Amino acid sequence: MGNERWNRNTRTSDTDADAQMFWKYANPHRFLGLSAVLLPWTAGATLVLVTAGVYLALFVSPPDYQQSETVRIMYVHVPAAWMGLFCYSIMAAASAAVLVWKHPLAAMVAKCTAPIGASFTFLALLTGSLWGKPMWGTWWVWDARLTSVLVLLFLYLGYIALHNAFDDPQRGSKAASVLALVGFVNVPIIKFSVDWWNTLHQPSSMVTADGPAIHASMLAPLLVMASAYTAYYVWVLLLRVRGEIIAAKIRTLQMRQASG
Question: Can you give the pLDDT at residue 140?
Answer without folding.
Answer: 82
